[in-house]
């Protein structure tokens, strides 16, 4: 599939990640929700750095702040920090085996949780529950599935061949 035919995949995948972040979950499972937006954005930062960079991360973060009703700029900051780290190590990360990529993504998601916790601490909000720290583990476990699904969509392999 040519690059020009796959332009729809970026906005649609980011919109799908926003929608997944809005899906209702039971109160007990809400802290375990994977950060879908970070997973999808990480994929695009690794696979198409010419189209996705810090500006896209910031813009998507602001849109997420508006969508989720969080502090304006919080998710933008979190996604820009993640994007900066990914851009810095993209050349190495891209060629890691999937298990090592998943570990690296898990580390990035944990870093994201630390940034979120620091923001909430500075604002005087209560400490997050212990389950809050398990979401990066879930994101790490989901990374291979997200990567393969996103690759299939980006490369057009999701279509049935006759």
TrEMBL record:
Top-rank taxon, per record: Bacteria
UniProt source species: Lysobacter niastensis
Membrane topology recorded in Swiss-Prot or TrEMBL: Multi-pass membrane protein
Descriptive protein name: Rod shape-determining protein MreD
Family: Belongs to the MreD family.
Compartment(s) where it occurs, according to its Swiss-Prot or TrEMBL record: Cell inner membrane; Cell membrane
Keywords, ordered alphabetically: Cell inner membrane, Cell membrane, Cell shape, Membrane, Transmembrane, Transmembrane helix
Transmembrane region(s): 52-81, 102-121, 133-153
Matching Pfam families: MreD (PF04093)
Protein role: Involved in formation of the rod shape of the cell. May also contribute to regulation of formation of penicillin-binding proteins.
Main localization of the protein described in the UniProt heading: membrane
Alphabetized InterPro entries for the sequence: Cell_shape_determining_MreD (IPR007227), MreD_proteobac (IPR026034)
